[in-house]
Specification:
With 234 residues, the protein is mostly helical. It has 16 helices and no strands. The protein is globular, with a radius of gyration of 19 Å. The protein starts with a helix and ends in a 5-residue tail after the last helix. The mean pLDDT is 96.
Length: 234
Amino acid sequence: MLRQLRKDLRASASAEKAKVLARFFKTGKGEYGEGDVFLGVMVPETRKVAKKYAGLPLNSINELLKSEIHEERLASLLILVEKYKESQDKVMRFYLRNAKHVNNWDLVDLSAPNILGAYLLENKKERKILDTLAKSGNLWERRIAIVATYALIRNQEYEETFNIAEILLKDRHDLIHKAVGWMLREVGKRDEKAEEAFLKKHYKVMPKTMLRYAIERFSEKKRKEYLINSTKAY
């Protein structure tokens, strides 16, 4: 089954698209996606393949997730999201053990809310997992921590998002700034007062990119007020 999955992915591959994706996901030397290899398969096609092989056993998913091929790792995570519905605890533990292989922003964003976030929505006592991930030296584990809270946000639970955002306020990586700002914006879509309460406490020391993402839906006047008074230059 695993061999056929790989064959099916390659049937949709495009060398031209692979080059575009490699640039888009920053695979050059010293960039965050250094070493990532692309076949040039678009996400909708990868989803089709993942759906076709939803019955792939966990040991095969483990092998696929450790692949150097980006689309193979993505397919493994999309299958894992489906498997989570059947075996929550087992799949969540597997996901955490292999978090270092969830190593590009799209892989995080398509899996963290639907596996870790979904689990923590139902298991409140284990939410300290997010703190541990947020303090990790691994970029992707830190992004998993904040993006996983999207599942809680959708349930009108914002405390964990604010807690993790506070931990990540001094993070130096642009991908974390964008993710935190994105999650704060999602809070604001549902409760603007709650988002503004957090921003008024922290916006002066927030990285500019984080702040810009967070206030994207505000009026032009309000956005300018926040940005003018922010003290961060990055």
